[in-house]
Structure formats: structure tokens, C-alpha cells
User: What shape does this take?
Amino acid sequence: MEESSFASTVPSVRDDDPIQDASFSYAGYQVVRGEFFAHVNEPSIVFNKCKVSVNTACVNKLAEVNYVQILVNPDEMKLAVMPCREDEKDSFLWCGIDRKTGRKKPREITCRLFFAKIVQLLDWNPEYRYKILGKLIQSNGEYLFIFDLTATEVYQRVQLDGEKPKSSRTPVFPAEWQNQFGLPVEEHRRSKQVNIFDGYVVFGLKNSVRPEKQRVIQESEGAINE
Assistant: This one.
């Protein structure tokens, strides 16, 4: 990896010139995971109770977008949310309008089949809430959000005596994160590279189902839940 690749993104220094150190190397450094910081304004996607939704940050970053497609790469365990036209196959409306403010807000989409497939793919507990941070990137002229499905914040449900189960506000992270701050610099750089259509499958999410398809989908749901 070229040492200048990271340094080229650093803004110009206004104070004294920095100390020149040609011996510096990124070897041994780890890029600290974004999940370890507060990230209200970072793009994220949530899977919870057979529903999926992005956060306000996603909608705000692509303010002109109304319809998107979800793509999943089951080999690399990555999910992409890609803007598209309303008339494209498998597109769905990812936002609504807040009646109080008149601004766009994310929509929570019911997706029982998709939720079941993701839970099965990643061996998740369907009773938990899963949140994944993402990044907006541009690849081959397309803007899209990329989410690493293996880097999740897990919110377990707890139940106190006499109360309904509630989602914990304290996230649980993967065990392998305990002894590391994040990915090594070179691996971190590779993880941001993506080919939009290489290995991805497009999923369509719909709230309404035509009557003639209802029975078939119900039977499929039963097969997945068995």
C-alpha cells in the first residue's frame, strides 16, 4: 500500500510545517471501528421484529431520493442500499413525510421473508434488534450505501418482572472485537472497495401483496419458519 494514500486526504496545515518523518509506516496500526463512538449522524440500517429501516442520516444524505433497491452479497456478507427509479423492478419507497415538520423521514418496512433470510444467513436471534453502520460511496458512477452485515450492534431484549420485554439500550458487540480496536489499515482500505453488481442479489420489499400471490408467500413463510 502506498503511504501517501491516507495522507492525501488530510487538509492543508495552517500552522508550522509538520515534522518530516520518512520512516513512518501504517504497519501495525488499526483503524478504530466507528461503532465504538457515538454515531447519531452516521448512516445505519436496523433489523427489528421482521422490519427493516434506515436512519434519518441516510435519507438526508440522499435528499432527492425516494426509491431504492436493497442488494445483498451473501458471500461477502455485505448489504447495499442503492437509489433507483420508482418504475424499476424491486424498488420500494424508503421515506415518508413528517406531518409536523414537512421533512422527509425514514419508513419502517415490513419484510417477513427478507428478515427470515437475513436471520438465517447470519445466524441471528430473531428476537434481538440489529443495527449496522454504513458509508455512502460512489462506485462506477452510482451512489449507494454499503453495510457490513458482520459488524453489528446487537440489542438484546430484557424482561423485568411483570413487564413486557424491552430492547436493551446497551449494545453487544461480536466477541472477536474484544481484543482489537478495528481492522488493520490495509485491510480497512480494501473493505471500502465494492463492485455494485458482483455477487449481489436484489431484494424487493413491499408492504402490500396482490391477492393471487398471498397464499404462495404464506406457504413460503411457513417453510422458512419450520
In short: Helices lie at 4-7, 56-61, 112-122, 185-191, 211-225. The chain is about 20% helix and 30% strand. Residues 207-226 have pLDDT under 50 and may be disordered.
